[in-house]
Amino acid sequence: MTRLNYTLSDALPSLPKSGMPVTIITGFLGSGKTTLLNQILQNKDNLKIAVLVNEFGDINIDEQLLISVESDMVELDNGCICCTINDSLVDAVYRVLERESKVDYLVIETTGIADPLPIIITFLSTELKFLTRVDAVITVVDAAAFDAKHFDSQAALSQIRYGDMVILNKIDLATEDKISEVKAFIENIKPGFRILPSEYGKVPLALVLDIGLTQADDYQGEISEFRRDKSAFNNHLANDGFSFVSFTSDRPLEIEKFEHFLTEQLSNNIFRAKGILWFQESPARHIFQLSGPRYDLQDAEWTSQPKNELVFIGRNLDESLIKQQLDDCLAGLILPNKFSLPNLPW
Ligand SMILES: Nc1nc2c(ncn2[C@@H]2O[C@H](COP(=O)(O)OP(=O)(O)OP(=O)(O)O)[C@@H](O)[C@H]2O)c(=O)[nH]1
């Protein structure tokens, strides 16, 4: 990946202000949040950035996709912090604040189906308001996939409504007309909104970190409502109807069978999939990404025992069917030599 010409020491001469600055990266499934986070981490210079990654599913794929971050700087939280807010989020932020080596900045990546509002409110209305400063809520939008139906997801709309700026990502995949259409849609929700077009999250860091966009006073109404009825903020998953299916295996897949699964069997209610794949035919570790109609595989090296780890996210998923289809992609059992049958005398 190319390094940006901006360094953080150029960009952020004024750090720190009061409280640890926090940037919340939100945006729908597959829009490019982890890609943006990787860009930030690759260009962070000497700034000590801790990241809090919240993932929907029971396998931490994002952790394995994050590059150039010291492992002790990542806090993980499976599930969805917007649904289990307060305690787990507050605890995770405390763990960051209590680190021996001082952390300069915290970046949070929410799940793609998270409503960012409860997360923002947790920072603005709990004891975290004395310890941190929400700098900006950045919404990553897929310029090619987003449309006025916003994936039939309340959370996707909330991500725009409660963002402080939009990174209009994947412009390489969108036509000029589509980009204008998405911009107009966003403008309509938030007139005058800052919209930054990008490819693979490549944006100058000075435009995304320490920009002081979040105005706590704007949230007084929501904070009162939240204090009155927390549950109203917690039911988006039921509304949006997303679920996940995860699959792991210590046996390799067969490439041809897996391709057949992708092209012939994959149900169209699967919106997003990601994982680490092991193919019988290849010594490489393959990073698999599927977002809407597109998928790709990137080669990497194994740093641990090869295995398959996959998560599928969508609506009304048939878990047993997906697992059966993937089981059918596994290579046949190969008996290790020591278990092979001896030459019998007859
Ligand atoms: N063509 C293209 N692909 C992109 C761009 N940005 C990200 N991608 C790809 O889109 C896929 C999803 O990107 P991620 O960064 O994992 O998306 P995410 O928002 O973190 O996804 P979730 O964690 O599932 O919500 C990956 O295959 C990325 O390589 C872009 O600007 N152009």
Number of strands: 12
As for the number of domains, it is 2
* Portion in helices: 25-40%
CATH fold annotation of the largest domain: Rossmann fold
The spatial strand order of the largest sheet comes to 3-2-4-1-5-6-7
Architecture of the largest domain, CATH level 2?
3-Layer(aba) Sandwich
The distinct bound ligands, ions and cofactors come out as: guanosine-5'-triphosphate
Count of helical regions? 12
Q: What percent of residues are in strands?
A: 15-25%
- Please tell me the overall pLDDT: 85
Major beta sheet summary: 7 strands, parallel
Shape: globular
Low-pLDDT ranges: 1-11
Q: What's the CATH class label of the largest domain? A: Alpha Beta
What oligomerization state is this entry in?
single chain
Spell out the CATH superfamily of the largest domain. P-loop containing nucleotide triphosphate hydrolases
Pfam family, one: cobW
GO molecular function: hydrolase activity; nucleotide binding
Keywords: Chaperone, Hydrolase, Nucleotide-binding
Organism: Hyella patelloides LEGE 07179
Describe the overall structure:
This protein has 346 residues and is α/β, with parallel strands linked by helices. It has 2 domains: 8-238, P-loop containing nucleotide triphosphate hydrolases (Rossmann fold); 242-327, CobW-like, C-terminal domain (Hypothetical Protein Yjia, Chain: A,domain 2). The chain has helices at 8-11, 33-42, 61-65, 87-97, 116-125, 128-131, 154-161, 176-189, 220-228, 236-240, 255-265, 319-327, and strands at 20-27, 49-55, 74-78, 105-109, 132-142, 165-169, 194-197, 242-249, 270-277, 285-291, 294-300, 308-315. The N and C termini lie far apart (62 Å). The site of guanosine-5'-triphosphate has 21 residues, from helix 2 and strand 10.
